[in-house]
Recover the amino acids of this structure.
């Protein structure tokens, strides 16, 4: 299979959306805005079929990532995410992934409101890998 991101052969991951034949390499997933869910079913989605956050909120012009303090995009996207509980904590995908990796499942929570139930579930759905340790 050819990777739809890089074009090289050997792509072993296929989008789990019925009827979608896009395949990609795991290392190409982030570059192609693909999402892999590290839940019991371990599903992967291409950028077209990847889950989107359903919370209806838009960042204000001055909003920054709560972790790195750098500006966020002007909308939710693959790169810019928001806490579905408090709706005030904006962060970059890479920043929250780093937070999840350091914290582990038992300590991972929203950096702003400290919710650890709805927030963690949303992050898992959005492809944030949270190690169990």
């Amino acid at each position: 299979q050819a990777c739809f991101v890089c074009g090289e052969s050997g792509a072993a991951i296929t989008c789990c959306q019925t009827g979608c034949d896009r395949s990609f390499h795991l290392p190409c997933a982030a570059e192609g805005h693909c999402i892999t869910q590290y839940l019991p079913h371990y599903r992967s989605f291409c950028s077209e079929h990847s889950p989107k956050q359903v919370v209806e909120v838009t960042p204000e012009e001055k909003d920054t990532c709560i972790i790195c303090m750098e500006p966020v995009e002007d909308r939710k996207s693959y790169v810019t995410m928001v806490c579905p509980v408090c709706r005030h904590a904006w962060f970059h995908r890479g920043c929250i992934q780093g937070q999840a990796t350091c914290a582990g499942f038992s300590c991972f929570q929203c950096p702003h409101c400290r919710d650890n139930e709805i927030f963690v579930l949303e992050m898992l759905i959005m492809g944030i890998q949270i190690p169990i340790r």
